[in-house]
Specification:
The protein is α/β, with parallel strands linked by helices and 243 residues long. It has helices at 15-30, 61-67, 104-122, 135-143, 206-210, 216-231; strands at residues 5-9, 36-41, 47-50, 70-73, 81-83, 86-94, 127-128, 157-158, 167-173, 176-184, 235-236. It has a single domain, classed as 2-Layer Sandwich (BirA Bifunctional Protein, domain 2). The chain contains 6 helices and 11 strands.
Length: 243
């Protein structure tokens, strides 16, 4: 099997459509049909995604219905993310991938290094959160909140002020992994759609940190550069045969 990962840049789609495509890519990788993909996309309408094991009772269904916010369950773990005014990435690869694989913490660190390199191209200085002395206690504290951006997990990316900038979660299936990541252009707002209101979210986002207007296309291009710098010739843009 080729070790090439396909670069996919998709337009906005519903939460259900996006999760179905990511699952199809994960299943194809698990079956050995592909080495994986790096997928960048958006959501329309805005969507609150909740983690694989997160209770649906965390969602304020009335608030979502009022504001036209879709709700979907991710195949990856983690807590709730509002996909609106942000860029989502999905990395699908074999668990043993030489550049992106490893155990959960190793693969997170490698993927986040590519994301950090891309954000650096925008002029952002980010750093991974280091492992605390009490890893299990820290994991319990992270999972205690319904809100993904309320607390950073190990290796998640922080801005220069130590605030969580990129949310991420992972899933594994038969030797393949899927990592989701959310890169907010504006401060995250999932707490407005959580039944308990959620913990205070970081007043961060790429636009505020850079002090200028940045659109989703610019962020996508930066992330592509970050992954291309890590993967080199292993990252391939598919040929459009419909043109």
């Amino acid at each position: 099997m080729s070790d090439v990962l396909t670069l996919l840049v998709d337009g906005p789609a519903s939460g259900a459509e996006n999760m179905a495509r990511d699952l199809a890519l994960l299943d194809a990788c698990a079956r050995g049909e592909t080495a994986g993909a790096v997928r960048l996309y958006g959501f329309a309408p805005p969507c609150l995604s909740i983690g694989r094991l997160q209770p649906l009772s965390d969602v304020d269904a009335a608030a979502c219905a009022r504001d036209g916010v879709d709700v979907v369950r991710r195949p990856s773990g983690g807590r709730a993310v509002l996909h609106d005014r942000e860029v989502t990435y999905a990395v699908i690869c074999r668990a043993g991938d030489p550049d992106l694989g490893g155990d959960v913490l190793q693969s997170c660190a490698r993927i986040h290094a590519a994301v950090a390199a891309g954000l650096k191209n925008l002029g952002l200085r980010v750093q991974p959160r280091l492992a605390p002395s009490d890893v299990r206690g820290d994991a319990r504290a992270v999972s205690a909140s319904a809100d993904c951006f309320a607390r950073p997990a190990v290796h998640e990316l922080l801005d220069a002020h130590g605030r969580k900038l990129v949310g991420s979660a992972q899933a594994r299936r038969r030797g393949a992994l899927l990592q989701h990541g959310s890169v907010p252009l504006d401060p995250p707002r999932a707490s407005a759609y959580l039944s308990a209101g959620g913990d205070p979210q970081p007043d961060t986002g790429i636009r505020a940190l850079l002090g200028r207007s940045v659109d989703a296309d610019e962020v996508r291009d930066a992330l592509i550069d970050g992954f291309a710098g890590l993967l080199g010739a292993r990252l391939r843009v598919p040929v459009d045969t419909t043109a």
